[in-house]
């Protein structure tokens, strides 16, 4: 497992969501948006999935996973590659659900503030309509790819 620096942890925690990539039975990539609820320096990332869909099916058959996050304004990003350590519904503890609710509330607050400042985005507030998470994905990071171009580091 690869240790995560404070810089990477802070960067990921500041993202509203990340792109999760998995591999389906045909060897094709599947990408979806997921929310991070917890990260530790040991290299474990806890993601919540709202649906028991393709990501779930793919990870059951093949535990390889990558997470990509980019901040266009800062012109930086990371791709973290690894494997799922576990996927379980039993780990949806009250603390995990509370962390998820706080993330959603934060995203909703940011959208409202941007709308007040007339930075038009989505006309509704889709976060309110999201279902409760179905299961928890625990990823162990094995490789970190810094997506920031070398001349900007």
- Percent range for helical residues? 25-40%
What is the CATH class designation of the domain at 6-89 and 132-152? Mainly Beta
Query: What is the β-strand count?
Result: 6
SS content category: alpha+beta
**pLDDT averaged over residues:** 85
What CATH calls the topology of the domain at 6-89 and 132-152 is Pnp Oxidase, Chain A
Q: Mind describing the biggest β-sheet?
A: 6 strands, antiparallel, barrel
Shape: globular
What is the name of the CATH superfamily of the domain at 6-89 and 132-152?
Electron Transport, Fmn-binding Protein, Chain A
Q: How are the strands of the biggest sheet laid out side by side?
A: 1-2-3-6-5-4
So how many helices?
3
Q: Which segments are poorly predicted (pLDDT under 50) over 5 or more consecutive residues? A: none
């Amino acid at each position: 497992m690869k240790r995560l620096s404070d810089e990477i942890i802070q960067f990921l925690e500041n993202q509203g969501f990340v792109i999760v990539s998995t591999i389906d039975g045909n060897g094709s990539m599947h990408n979806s948006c997921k929310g991070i609820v917890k990260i530790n320096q040991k290299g474990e990332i806890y993601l919540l999935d709202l649906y028991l869909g393709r990501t779930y099916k793919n990870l059951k058959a093949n535990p390889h996973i990558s997470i990509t996050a980019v901040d266009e304004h800062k012109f930086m990003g990371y791709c973290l590659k690894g494997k799922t350590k576990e996927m379980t519904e039993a780990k949806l503890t009250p603390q995990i659900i509370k962390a998820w609710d706080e993330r959603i509330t934060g995203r909703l607050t940011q959208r409202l503030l941007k709308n007040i400042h007339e930075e038009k985005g989505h006309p509704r507030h889709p976060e309110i309509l999201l279902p409760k998470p179905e299961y928890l994905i625990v990823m162990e990071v094995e490789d970190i790819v810094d997506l920031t171009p070398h001349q900007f580091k």
